[in-house]
Amino acid sequence: MAKTTSNSKVKAKPDSDALIAAYMDYVLVNEKTPKSVYKFSKDNGITEQDFYQYFGSFEGLRKEIWVRLFQNTLNVIQKSKEYKNFDNREKLLTFFYTLFEVLTANRSYILYALHDHDTPLKNLAELKNFRKHLKLYARDLIEEGNMNKTAQFLKQSETIFSEGVWIQFLFLLKFWMDDNSAAFESTDIAIEKSVNTVFDVFDNTPLERLVDFGKFLWKERMA
């Protein structure tokens, strides 16, 4: 994500990146959201029209931040030549590893955004568009895998899998938010074990992975 300084202003003809950077900087420096688009625009040397050219509200801007986080993740992994040759399990692992690296680079904002409201559901509302992109990514993975399976009974449900990946993300997000390990190493372990578990469940061989994953969660909970 683009960075800015606390006393900087948006350039004369702003683009969406500059507005997002200015907004993120504002909430981190002031520890609150701007009171109005008018005040935010004036403080950044632009007009309300400049803001509304890209976003209809702060809510729309906040949702777009999550979409950019998703897009940044895809841009990184798709540049890798190795990624194209990975199987679905390796691709999802790479996706989550990269996604949480992107989130970590913006951790202060993410933690603020997800604690902004007392009601968790209001905070998760910002992830609405992110959820659509994530589920589509997951559906594409399974669709690609199903194309290589000749027997119908071996094919996996795209709907169930994509919803499972979304739930998996929510679990990993909460885990990462609470993770106090150096370099968030525990989150990396959680990603590996959860992705392996999800795929093993779909491959009908869940027991060993589920036990291993359960032991890991118990250890982290009791530490």
Automatic annotation (TrEMBL):
SUPFAM superfamilies with a match to the protein in the record: Tetracyclin repressor-like, C-terminal domain
Pfam families from the UniProt entry: TetR_C_23
Top-level taxon in the UniProt lineage: Bacteria
Residues annotated as domain Tetracyclin repressor-like C-terminal: 91-217
InterPro entries in alphabetical order: Tet_transcr_reg_TetR-rel_C_sf, TetR_C_23
Protein name per its UniProtKB record: TetR family transcriptional regulator C-terminal domain-containing protein
